[in-house]
Design a protein that fits this description.
disordered N terminus; 359 residues; alpha/beta; single chain; 12% strand; eight-stranded parallel β-barrel
Length: 359
């Protein structure tokens, strides 16, 4: 009887172990990898003309972010090429996310004729439908959340992380209610509503990015993030031929220094959890270095700056790293076939080990 008991116990333990192994998801952090996310963001033209799932696998990149707008990306994902892209990502163990300039799709501009109070007030006190919204319009928030739910049922990230950004680098609202909040805080008001909608109607464990970028670099004070809102920090106006830890460096056309960026990052990490924070960089952003014009120039890759930067971010506890890589389509690789920089990028993230503290 005792032998039968132990045999049953052993078989039960073996079954539990096998079941847990079966449920292990690809690209989760291993003991060897400090960085959880080794990401790249590409637009639908890049994704439809290059076998990016295979290239990502070969390069040590474990996450592809699809770009630009929800409607553009949804059209791609529902196409035959998009379905094949998702199938190939699954085959190679590549996570898929959707990093989106979203507001014009989420709050269509033609609704201005119906109710102008849903849209932002400019500094002259006039309601305008140019970009963003009034975050104190309950109607606007409801419409945005309804559209987030609609798109999220098509654009389902394999990581549970959602990215619905405000409009790119332009002002928020100056109405009497909104003007008492910073642009970061207005953005967070919106994000707090979106995460509630995502968790109640799409995914109980969803998380949502708060993009600290350009006009939203300042850490929010008056508004606190809801559970599930994580920091995505994008130092757009830095220089990429100098490490970000060279504090006095700045681009000729801007006032912000590398030191200012790191101060903003540190301030935001006091508000948002470090363990979920992501840095969104531009090391591989061919579109930026091409001044958003084609034909694209060859990427000015700098491995030394990249390695220094990821060390700077890692020492702040950041374990999620991605970069824009837009304009790396079939024409780009025909003109510049060397892809060694991708292996240096993915390999650098995979092989990085946080230095041990000195005793």
């Amino acid at each position: 009887m005792k032998n039968i008991f132990f045999r049953v116990l052993f078989l039960s333990m073996l079954f539990t172990t096998l079941l847990s192994c079966k449920n292990v998801q690809p690209n989760k952090k291993t003991n060897r990898d400090f960085f959880v996310t080794h990401g790249i963001i590409l637009d639908v033209n890049d994704l439809s003309t290059v076998d990016w799932p295979k290239l990502a696998k070969e390069s040590g990149i474990n996450t592809i972010g699809c770009h630009v707008t929800p409607s553009q990306v949804a059209t791609f994902i529902e196409s035959n090429k998009g379905k094949q892209f998702l199938k190939d990502c699954k085959k190679y163990g590549i996570n898929v996310e959707y990093e989106l300039h979203a507001l014009s799709d989420l709050l269509p501009r033609d609704l201005f004729k119906e109710d102008s109070t849903m849209f932002r007030m400019n500094e002259e006190g006039k309601r305008v439908a140019d970009y963003n919204l009034c975050v104190h319009s309950e109607k606007a928030l409801n419409i945005i959340c309804d559209n987030v739910v609609k798109y999220s049922k098509i654009l389902k990230p394999t990581t549970g992380r959602y990215f619905y950004w405000i409009d790119d680098g332009v002002p928020m609202c100056y109405c009497p209610k909104c003007k008492n909040y910073s642009e970061s805080e207005q953005s967070l008001i919106l994000e707090n509503r979106i995460i509630k909608a995502l968790r109640s109607e799409v995914d109980n464990y969803a998380s949502l990015a708060h993009l600290a970028y350009h006009r939203t670099l300042e850490a929010p004070v008056k508004i606190k993030p809801e559970d599930g809102v994580f920091l995505e920090f994008a130092p757009f106006h830095r220089k990429w031929d100098k490490p970000i830890n060279e504090l006095n460096v700045k681009r000729n056309d801007v006032e912000i220094t590398h030191g200012d960026y790191l101060k903003y990052l540190d301030d935001n990490l006091k508000v948002f959890p470090k363990e979920t924070a992501q840095v969104l960089e531009y090391w591989l952003d061919v579109s930026l270095f091409s001044n958003w014009k084609k034909p694209a120039v060859q990427l000015p890759w700098n491995k030394e700056v990249f390695m220094s930067d990821i060390d700077t971010y890692a020492k702040r506890g950041i374990r999620h790293i991605t970069t824009f890589g837009v304009y790396m389509d079939n024409v780009y690789f025909n003109n510049y076939p060397d892809v060694s920089f991708l292996r240096e990028y993915g390999g650098g993230l995979k092989q990085y080990a946080l230095p041990k503290a000195k005793k």
